[in-house]
Amino acid sequence: MKTVTVLTPADASPGFALAGVGQKTGSRSEAAALLAQAVTDPAAGLVAVDERLLDPALEESLPTLPFAGALVVLPAPALAARPREGYVERLLRRAIGYAVRLAR
Length: 104
Fold this sequence. Notes:
four-stranded parallel beta sheet; single chain; alpha/beta
């Protein structure tokens, strides 16, 4: 059976573990190592990463990771309540492969 692993900052430590989901906590500087460990686990079926752990370079490398399962980025709880400048543009660039300039 495939497993679900969620990578979060330390302040979210009890949340996913209470739901019975595998959770690994760390800082932004540890995110690349945590992610590499999670995607190389043969039992992993889904890896979810809290966006607070992602720096721009790591976020850009996500599509190139050698992972057969699903990899998703979870919006940060504190950031979901307010609109983020450039968030839609980043999503479009990721989805279609190039930057789009949106008129406001």
